[in-house]
Write a structure and sequence with these properties.
Number of helices: 8
Shape: globular
Number of strands: 0
Strand content: under 5%
Length: 252
């Protein structure tokens, strides 16, 4: 990876109207996504009387997250790029597609969006628990870490192929759908083992509201490693120096 592509940005970016609008877009997209995804799990628990996890519940989680992310990415794409994930933002930063300072704005907005969504869910459901992500019985932290790395690699690789790559052409039209689908598919794979987060903000909101931080670091380290790996590999193999579009002056 060409190190010169990484941009820090300038302090005035924090007051740049475009950057502020983009941060708000990330906040609302994350709120929409977490409210739909986490809320569907809470609705399923209510319908089943807090019964044990079932294959049907896994399918419900997969579909709700896929649909919710499809919409969340779509509504934010033209304003912020529709990251809706701190790991996606990190991957974009590693590839030189966003400055560090704007990334920090996105991360703050994404985390706040997740927390607010969980607060709203707790209030709307009459105090139901917003369950934090956790490891299933027999799953070690290292098992979960590998799951999160590989699943997030697939997610960010899809983001790069359909949304970031300058050569994407008409494929960019289906980017939100593709991104939602890979998340839904990965939940079918990893949901029964560690919840299949792939998104530190999605894990952060429920953990904050329920104040449950057991193994929480897995849901940050795994996605960030997977994201960086996908960004570096895709950028070097398929985009390269000639295909990379430099950041505009408005991003500094």
């Amino acid at each position: 990876m060409a190190v010169y592509r990484i941009a820090i940005g300038s302090p005035r970016e924090a007051s740049n109207p475009a950057a502020i609008r983009a941060a708000f877009a990330e906040f609302f997209s994350m709120l929409i996504f977490v409210f739909a995804g986490q809320g569907s799990g809470m609705a399923y628990s209510k319908l089943t009387g807090n019964g044990p996890a079932t294959p049907a519940g896994l399918i419900v989680a997969s579909l709700s997250h896929a649909f919710g992310l499809f919409v969340a990415v779509s509504v934010g794409a033209n304003i912020s790029g529709g990251h809706v994930n701190p790991a996606v933002t990190f991957g974009a930063f590693i590839g030189g597609n966003i400055t560090l300072l704007r990334s920090i704005l996105y991360w703050i907005a994404q985390l706040l969006g997740s927390v607010v969504a969980c607060i709203l869910l707790k209030f709307a459901t009459g105090g139901m628990e917003t369950s934090a992500f956790s490891l299933s019985s027999g799953v070690s932290v290292w098992n979960a870490l590998v799951f999160e790395i590989v699943m997030t690699f697939g997610l960010v690789y899809t983001v790069y192929a359909t949304a970031v790559d300058p050569k994407k052409g008409n494929v960019g039209v289906v980017a939100p759908l593709a991104i939602g689908c890979i998340v839904g598919a990965n939940i079918l794979v990893g949901g029964a083992f560690d919840g299949a987060s792939m998104n530190p903000a999605v894990s952060f909101g429920p953990a904050m509201i329920s104040w449950s931080w057991t193994h929480h670091w897995v849901y940050w380290l795994g996605p960030f490693i997977g994201s960086a790996t996908a960004a570096i590999l895709y950028d070097n193999i398929f985009i390269g120096d000639d295909g990379h579009e430099p950041l505009s002056n408005s991003d500094f």
